[in-house]
Design goal:
Helix content is 33%, strand content 26%. The chain has six helices and ten strands. The strands form two sheets. Strands 1, 2, 6, 7, 8, 9 and 10 form a seven-stranded mixed β-sheet that branches. The longest helix has 23 residues, at 201-223. With 226 residues, the chain is of the alpha/beta class. Helix 4 (110-127) packs antiparallel against helix 6. The two termini are 20 Å apart.
Length: 226
């Protein structure tokens, strides 16, 4: 018979489909409040956003926005100021965004949390025969100097939100409207571009969920639902 912790630490998976960024952020905040109150289990949310540039909390992030209002309007890309960490980035169809809303109350180490998120993505890409790496001093996951996954997280009372954005097959031309994450010595890529074939987003989400539960299993088992 499993112990109490084992019964309550199953990670919920939720796929929101296509969402507006601002609406998704409000939904995240509600889940964070529910998790803090103990009415919500740890949950991993997947979504794809309508085209949007998001500004993080890093000082000077606004200087890395290259397109003016007219260019953004012509491309169908909106602009949103976010409360996540990091610089400026792009979200859009063909990019899987994963929002883990989990308790770190018994493991108050945001640096370790970020390393674990990176490990989830590295393992997922390895499953598709893509050898990706971290780059010293830079956030994200890279294939050589081509960025394939961005990270921007937030935490409130040690409940996490925001998360990662993995490029499956987005419109990479939209990244020309920004200096992605403020990085000037690299480019942006996608799984489909690197593999030279279409990749099904559903299968990537399934693999991310598997790897997330594998990497975070011990953390989730320790934290549970208080």
């Amino acid at each position: 018979m499993p112990g109490t912790n084992e019964q309550v630490t199953l990670l919920e998976i939720s796929d929101w489909g296509r969402t507006d960024y601002a609406d998704a952020l409000e939904r995240q905040k509600k889940l964070v409040a529910e998790r803090q109150a103990g009415r919500q289990s740890d949950i991993l949310v997947f979504t794809e956003h309508e085209p949007v540039f998001t500004l993080g909390l890093r000082s000077g992030a606004e200087h890395h926005l290259l397109w003016g209002e007219a260019e953004r309007s012509a491309a169908g890309v909106t602009l949103h100021t976010s409360n996540r960490g990091g610089d400026i980035t792009y979200h859009g169809p063909g990019q899987i965004v994963a929002y883990p809303i989990i308790s770190l109350s018994k493991r108050k180490d945001l640096h370790a949390y970020l390393r674990d998120l990176e490990e989830v993505v590295l393992r997922t890409l390895r499953h598709y025969q893509l050898e990706a790496v971290r780059r010293d001093g830079l956030t994200g996951i890279w294939i050589e100097k081509r960025k394939i996954c961005a990270f921007g997280v937030a935490v409130k009372s040690w409940v996490t939100y925001h998360g990662l954005a993995l490029n499956i097959n987005p419109d990479l031309s939209h990244f020309s409207g920004i200096v992605p994450c403020g990085i000037t010595d690299g480019t942006v890529t996608s799984m489909s571009l690197e593999l030279g074939k279409p990749i099904e987003a559903k299968s990537v989400k399934s693999r991310l969920a598997v790897e997330f539960q594998e990497v975070f299993g011990k953390t989730l088992l320790t934290d549970g639902n208080e």
